[in-house]
Amino acid sequence: MAAPVPLIAVRGSDGTSLLCGPPDCERHAAFQRDSQVSRCFTFSRDGALFSWCDGRSVSVVKSSDCSLLSTFDLPKVTQLQFSPLSTILVTWHPYAKTQSCPQGEANLQLWDVHSGQLIKALYQKKLESWCPSWSEDEKVAVRSVNNELHFFENNDFSAIANKLHMQKVSDFALSPGCYPSKVAIYVPGSKGAPSFVRLYQYPVFGGPTVALANKSFFKADRVIMQWNKKATAVLVTASTEVDKTGASYYGEQTLHYLAVNGESAVVQLPKNGPIYDVAWSPSSAEFCVVYGFMPAKATIFNLKCDPVFDFGTGPRNAAYYSPQGQLLVLAGFGNLRGQMEVWDVKKYKQVSKPQAPDATHFSWSPDGEHVVTATCSPRLRVNNSYQIWHYTGSVLHKCAVPELWEVLWQPFPDGTFPERAVKYQAVKSELGTTQATPTQAYRPPALRHLPATASSKLHEDEPPQNMKPGATGEKSKAALKKQRQREARKAAKQSVQESKSEPPPDPTPVSTTSHPGPVCGDSGPDKKVKNLKKKLKAIEELKEQQASGKVLQKSQLEKMEKEEQLLKELEELQLGL
Fold first, then answer.
1. pLDDT tens, 129-139?
2. Predicted local confidence at residue 456, as pLDDT
């Protein structure tokens, strides 16, 4: 049976449309494009259903034939979400008070997808964490209310099954997978006490003694908690709004690791600077971190928080694993040029290096073969468009939209698309490739008339390095530096030996009749020879310094350019003596 073709939903100022994915990239024949301005849209977890709000109502259709399943009279909705088994549609609109309703109306509503009946209406004033979180079997649902967690069982929202109240729980993350569910909670520090993250297994709550894992730390105004796919560990990125040392505009970030077996650690990052992105591999056995002042480093760590592979440095601030996990994209979006590096993470080999300038969105197709990049409003209001391309760098489809707001792939259940062999040759395309053209590094004006050398670079790029014990790969930065120093010392030693091996000039007898006075060895031609040798020796020292990586001044470079002239003068003087 042939694998299905994922759909792509596009929302912009010209309405909502569904597009068939590659290789055809044509409009979905069964979907009648909605020309009304769409506020939001979403697919169900398995991709079987599609829902959108056009400012008048919320519609739910089947993705296969776009037959209408249900309609809700909800013109103000700005957020939509399906429960994991597609039994409930959650809608949210901004909370507001009116004269007829001074206390405000319940703005978070849970609807039965098939019957269209309202299950529960709740109050949710903040957009942050607006949607309840479910386990994949929908046996447990949880939402945050007034700094405590409310748990519901079997989609019965009429009664709270359990509560977790501990000081002030400001954030949580429910584990993926089915029952028994685990939950990570974050409690910010106060009055000199540290912040902490704890892992619990539902419904066993309490203090640190019953927690699966506990990690406390300072310098945390907020955190981002990420479970791996197997729900065995959590990565916690702790951030402060302001870096008190003044080293970073982005504040301070630290990365912590917690496992359900009780292990915890601080992930040691060898380069100072912000943490831009953290991504779990779908295998749950490793994770990638993009960090450090530009040019940023990217490193893969194992579950012991030991580095496995270092991608070196580059203009990047994001990492995206393919759904099957064999490919990794390192990208530089936002204030960077949109350069992307596609890596085969099994062989640690670069596949392609495409470029998507001005991209504000990137996402993998469920088939693990294609990606979509887009320039969306309001981040950028010019050149709004999206393009679909193969991971080898070939552009398969481009489309400009007057004002593009969102692009979304249709999801599929795990295992729908098997893992395929990685291709290194770009696939054929009428639109060509987006491979980045090599750019010349900036060179100061004083060095532009000279040959390019490593010392003229603003940054010393670090090459990739396999950090597994016994692995053979590229040399590290320290090894390359030592190698350059050895080569410089060897070249200097060789030049000294060559100068010593040259025979000295024949002494010329001094005539006492023509020079009746006392003979002085430092007068006349002998003095000029000595001065020339002194200047040539100084030039040799400058050449050694340049070979070791030192940046020379303009006057020193001009002095080196006179070497041939000085050698010629020395030769003429020695012949004349």
1. 899 999 999 99
2. 47
Rounded mean pLDDT of 218-245?
A: 88
Please work out, in degrees rounded to the nearest 5, the angle formed at the alpha carbon of residue 78 by the alpha carbons of 76 and 80.
Answer: 115
Two tokens at 322? 């393919």
Enter the tokens of residue 542: 């400058």
Residue 393 predicted with pLDDT over 70: yes
Q: How confident is the model over 138-193, as pLDDT tens digits?
A: 999 999 988 889 999 999 998 999 988 877 888 899 999 888 899 999 998 887 88
Q: How far apart are CA 373 and CA 340, in angstroms?
A: 11
Amino acid sitting at position 218: F
User: Among candidates 210, 212, 147, 145, which has minimal Cα distance to 175?
Assistant: 212
DSSP SS3 for 398: strand
- Whole-angstrom distance, CA of residue 317 vs CA of residue 332: 5
Indicate the pTM of the whole model.
0.75
Can you list the positions of beta strands (E) in 264-360? Answer: 264-266, 275-280, 286-291, 296-302, 307-314, 318-321, 327-331, 340-344, 349-352
264, 257 Cβ separation under 8 angstroms? yes
Q: What is the DSSP letter of 147?
A: T
State the burial class of residue 361 (Cβ atoms within 10 Å of its Cβ: 0-12, 13-18, 19+).
middle
Contact 67, 61 (CB under 8 A): yes
Residues 404 and 425: beta-carbon distance below 8 Å: no
**Minimum mean pLDDT among 447-451, 461-465, 513-517: which range?**
513-517
* Residue 554 tokens, joined: 């303009």
Cβ-proximal residues to 285 (8 Å cutoff; 6+ apart), any chain? 302, 303
> By mean pLDDT, which of 158-167, 268-277, 507-516 is the weakest?
507-516
Q: How far apart are CA 93 and CA 270, in angstroms?
A: 44
| DSSP character string of 51-100 | EEE-SS-EEEEETTT--EEEEE--TT--EEEE-TTSSEEEEE------SS
Q: Report which of residues 451 and 341 the model is more confident about.
A: 341
The beta strand positions in 325-462, using DSSP E, are 327-331, 340-344, 349-352, 361-364, 370-375, 385-390, 395-400, 404-409
What phi and psi values does residue 433 have, to the nearest 5 degrees? -120, 170
ω before 203 within 30° of 0 (cis)? yes
pLDDT in tens, 304-339: 999 999 998 999 999 999 999 999 999 999 888 889
Do 52 and 80 touch, CB atoms closer than 8 A?
yes
Number of H helices, E strands in the chain: 4, 36
Both tokens of 304, joined, read 């012991």
The set of residues, in sequence order, having a beta carbon less than 8 Å from that of 266 and lying 6+ positions away, is 217, 254, 255, 256, 257, 305
- Cα-flanking dihedrals φ and ψ of residue 57, to 5°? -155, 170
The Cα–Cα gap between 387 and 429 comes to 13
Q: Under a CB-based contact definition with an 8 Å cutoff, are residues 8 and 23 in contact? A: no
